[in-house]
Amino acid sequence: MTQEENPEQNPLANQQGTGGKRILATREDVELLVNLFYNKVRDNAMLGHVFDTVARVNWEKHLPKMYNFWEMILFGTEGYDGHPLRPHLIINSVHPITIPHFEQWLVLFFQTLDENFEGEKAEEAKTRAYNIANAWAHKIDYMNKLNNTPTIEVNS
Prior knowledge:
Radius of gyration: 18 Å
CATH superfamily: Globins
Strand order of the largest sheet: 1-2
């Protein structure tokens, strides 16, 4: 068990930063971040319907998977088992996911961090989220453009 996993060994656990916000330092903090963030997503006009109506996310399964994902990303822990891009590709085949979707996702993620957390890991979370969203947005955008462009044209 790492210091991040064991609050008794982590000097940053449950501490407030100089700005009065939590230091992002433990699994408990990751769970709070993910829960607050997905509350924003579900209330968002652009994203909520994609998650709740198109993807019909099972939140009881999805949230623990996201806790594990972000804990792995931020603290290097094991426990996440999945292929995070795959579900987005499946959803995209039914309902196009566009760059503005990813931009809105980032706005909400950054807002959640800025409103509740500070410190090195909060900044790292922003960087990691940006890198993931940017890469996936461009991959999916490229695929969407390919799907809308005939690969072979026949001139008679």
